[in-house]
Amino acid sequence: MKTIIEPFRIKSVEPIKMTSRAQREQYLKDAHYNLFSLPSDDVLIDLLTDSGTSSMSAAQWAGMMIGDESYAGSPSYGRFEEAVKNLMPFKHVMPTHQGRAAERILFSVVTKAGDFIPSNTHFDTTRANIEAGKAVAVDLVIEEGKDPASEHPFKGNMDTDKLTAFIAEKGAENIPICMMTITNNSGGGQPVSMANLRAVSDICKGHGIPFFIDACRFAENAWFIKMREDGYADASIPDIVREIFSLADGATMSAKKDALVNMGGWLALNDDTWEEQCRNVLILTEGFPTYGGLSGRDLEAIAIGLEEVVDEDYLKYRMASTAYVGDRLIEAGVPIMRPVGGHAIYIDARAFLPHIPPLEYPGQSLACELYLRGGIRGCEIGTVMFGQQPDGSEAPAAMDLVRLAIPRRVYTESHMLYVLEVILETWENRDSLRGMKIDWQPQALRHFTSKFSYTDTKSKKEAA
Ligand SMILES: *Cc1c(COP(=O)(O)O)cnc(C)c1O
Fold first, then answer.
1. Where in the sequence is the domain holding 68, given as residue range(s)?
2. How distant, in Å, are the alpha carbons of 60, 222, 244, 439 from that of 315?
3. Which of 288, 308, 328 is the last residue of a domain?
4. Three-class SS of residue 213?
5. What is the pLDDT of residues 371-400, one digit of tens each?
6. Is the CB of residue 388 below 6 angstroms from any atom belonging to ligand 1?
7. Domain boundary among 278, 308, 338
8. Which parts of the chain register pLDDT below 70?
9. Closest approach atom of ligand 1 to CA 184
10. Is 12 domain-assigned?
11. pTM to 2 decimals?
12. Are residues 382 and 264 in the same domain?
C-alpha cells in the first residue's frame, strides 16, 4: 500500500503566521480563554469548523469569471440547476444564501404550531427553525449512535421502530415531513446506511409523510456507503448519491459543506404546491428564484464544486486524512469518539481529563491547551456549549467533547501529522491541565462570548 496523497497540487498559497508559546499565552489571555474571540491570524491550524472553509479549485475560480449577474434568467442558474439535479433529481431547486435560509423557508411553509418533525438528529439551526414556528423537533437516532465507544458502521441511522411508534402515537396528520441528516453532524459526523434511508422512506410513504434529507455532507455519506455497506463496493459515488435522493421528496443543503464553496445553499423539492409557496417566501426574503440569496458567480462555483466533491480520489484522500489521525489516537489510547466520522475528530475530554469535573469544563481546558501547545483551534462541544439552563442554573452536558473539524482541501498531510503530535504531547502531559471557570457570560449561547479563567484547584500533577 502506497501513501494516499492529496489529489491536487497547490497553485496559490496562504501563509500561516508562526507563533511562539509565549505569544499564544498572551493572545489567549487577551481573548479571555475563549477561542471564538481569537483573531484567526493568530491561529496556526484552524479546526473550528469545516463549514465555509473549503479551498476552491482553479476550475471554480475560473468559473466565477463567467458568472452571469443578470437579475433574471442567468445562465449561471441553469448550470447550477443542472449540477444539482444531476445528483439530486428533484423537480424544483431554489438557491439560498446558506443552509439555514433553506430550512427557514421550508419550515415556514410546511409546519404549523404543535406539529412534530422527526429526524435521526436535527442540526441546531434546523431545530431552531422548527421551534421558531412552535413545532417540535424530535431526534430518533439508534441507541448505538449515543454511545461514543460503539463501533457500529452507521451510527447515524434512525431507529425505525421508534419512528413507527412515534407516528402511531402522534398521528401522521401532525407530522408534515420527516427528515434525515446525512452525515449526522450533531451525532459526531456518523453516516446513515442506504438500507436505513430506504426503510425510513418506506415508512414515510406508508403514512403519506413527505421525506426530506438535510444533505450537507451527502458525498461523505455516499463514500461510507460504498466502503461499508454490502452491495455498494462497485457502485460509483454519483450513482449512490442519486439513489439516496431518489428515496426522498426534497432536501435542504448548505453548500458550505459538500459543495466546496465558502457560502451558499439550496432548497430542493418535488411538490408543486409547496414549491409555489416556498418560491414566494424566497422572493420575499432571499431574492428572485434564479439567484435566490447568491451571486451568479457563486452559482457557477457550486456547479463545479458538485462535480469535484463526488470524485473518488478526493473523497479517498479526505477520509484517509481524518481516519489517519483518528486511528493513531486510538492506538495511543487517547479517548475519541468511534469510529472516526467524516469531517471531524471528537476528543472525549471528560475521559481525557478525569481529574477535571464537568462543571470545571474539561473540554474548554483541553481546547485551550491544544492552542497553547500548538496553535490549534478546536471547538468545545460540552458543558460550556450546553450546560446553561433556561432558569440560569447550570448542569453538566451529556458529554464533554472537543471537536477538531477538518476544512476541505485546506491542510496537507504534514499539517495533520502536526495536529496528531500536538494532541499526543497534550495527552502525555494531561495531568498538568487545570479546570476553568466562567468570569462573565451572556444570557444565552454563552460559548461564543463567555470570558474564562483557570480555577484555583491544583492540577493533578501539582496535587501529586
Ligand atoms: C451547517 C449545517 C446546516 C446549516 O447550514 P448553514 O449553511 O450553516 O446555514 C444544517 N444542517 C447541517 C447538518 C449542517 O451541518
1. 58-308
2. 18, 10, 17, 43
3. 308
4. strand
5. 999 999 999 999 999 898 878 899 999 889
6. no
7. 308
8. none
9. 13
10. no
11. 0.95
12. no
